Structures are given as C-alpha cells and as structure tokens.
Amino acid sequence: MANEMLSYIDRTSPIHRLTGATKLVCFILWSTAAMLTYDTRILLFLFIASLVIFYVSKIRLRDILFVLIFILVFLLINNIAIYLFSPQEGVKIYGTGHVLVEFAGRYNMTLEQLFYQLNITLKYLTVIPAALLFIVTTHPSEFAASLNRIGVSYRIAYAVSLALRYIPDVQRDFRNIAKAQQARGLDMSKNEKFLKRVKNASAVLAPLILSSLEKIEIISNAMELRGFGKKKKRTWYNARPFQKRDYTAIILFVLLLIATLLITYHDGSRFYNPFS
Question: Any stretches that span the bilayer, and where are they (predicted)?
C-alpha cells in the first residue's frame, strides 16, 4: 500500500506502536500549539521536532512526495495571495517598516512582511508533516475507533474510515481506466500538449465517477442489510487499549502545548517582535 497516496503504510516504529486515539490527541495538541503561536523561535523548534518525529516513524519521503509537492505548491500560492491582498500586514503587526525593495504604492517589500510570511510558512511546515504522519501511520479502522473513543459518533467515525479506505481504490480505478483509455488510442503522455492532456484526462472522469457511485451503492446496501446504525454503540475490532507509552506521549504533548502558550503570551502578544 506504500505506493498509494495518503494510505496506511505499515512500518515497525515507535509512532506506529502508539494507538490511533493517542496519535489523534497528540496531533490536535500539536496543531493547536502551532496555530496559536507566532513566535518564530517556537515554530522553528516545532518544525525541527516534526522532522525528527518523521524520521523516527521510518516513513520515506518518496512515500508522500506527490502529496507533499502539491501542498508546497498550495503554500507558495497562499504566500503570493497574502502579499497581493495584504502587503503591509507585517508592518501593522510589528509597528515598523524596513523597506527592502520599492514597488508601486503599498506594495513596497518590507522586512516585516517577509518575517510575517516566514512565520505563516513555518506554521504550515510544522503542521503538514504531523498531519501526513498521522494519516499514513494510522490504520483507517483504528482511526475510526479513535474518533469514537474521543466522543465522535461511530456513524461519523465509520464514514471517515470508509473515506480513507476508499482513497487507494479510487487511485487504482483511475490508473486502470486511464490504461484502458490509452489502449484505445487516448494519449495522456507528455507527447501531447498540456491542454490536450487535460482534455483527454477528462475522459477518464466519467467512468471513474460511475464506478465510484456503483461501489458506494454496494457498500450502502451491505451496511443497511447488516443493520448498521441501529444501535447507539458498537465495538471495534482494531481498537487497542492505552499503554504506558500512550500516556507518556499525551503528557509530553500537553506539556508542549502549555509551554508554547506560556512562552507565547508571557508579554500579552502572540507575535515575537525582533524589530522592537
């Protein structure tokens, strides 16, 4: 399954040995810490720590490379949009304006704006590895059990589990349909122009959607015949009890969140200001 995007990758690592509920709670605490602070020192620490945790998980970069590139492209577009719509936001936040490059009107590039957008980028780079790591190291069934364990309805949890399970199926169906279309003479290789390739790729979407709808109907009928949703509670085959390492991980992440909040708000502001 390692060849599929955003699917569970089975490895032997300390991260995999944690229960799904533990990883979900730790991810929420980690994301909260990263989103609440604009202290560059804390964000750099969290970013480096996320890389270390990623290394410990034994997940290879090529396993998530395509998704990572897509997210980084989105991050670049987001930074460009921030500068276009609010080019002086850093000046407003830090109270000073050191102009690096002069442009027309309010689009002068300032050191404060670059520093502000650096913090935005660090936020994404801190949360993205943790999010990808949580997805690829947690089995969908265990993820559903984790959601149910923290109070989410098992109907919603099971729907999320099915969605995660279905991602690899959609990818396999897309490849199979694309190969079938190419066998019929539909060229989607680099030999064609980009717009032509996009047009040819659209010919794959119709059978893919019909195939997906058929599978959804089969699964819905199977669940209905088995009385899914009739009871208020259900048991989980992949649910695991908490062990010492799970409690230790949660405590460490709680302490991390508390330390982040104390350092961030010790002067009453979320922003670390090196210009004052």
Answer: 20-36, 42-57, 64-85, 114-136, 247-266
DSSP letter at 18 equals S
What is the rounded distance in angstroms from the CA atom of residue 136 to the CA atom of residue 138?
Answer: 6
Amino acid at 208: L
* Residue type present at position 116: Y
> Please, what is the average pLDDT of the chain?
83
Mean pLDDT in residue range 100-105:
79
- Alpha carbon 67 to its chain centroid, in Å, reads 9
Q: Where do the structural domains in the chain lie, given as residue ranges?
A: 1-139+239-276, 152-237
pLDDT in tens, 214-232: 887 888 888 777 777 777 7
Give the residue among 34, 228, 226 at the shortest CA–CA distance from 131.
34
C-alpha distances in angstroms, 37 versus 9, 34, 168?
31, 6, 35
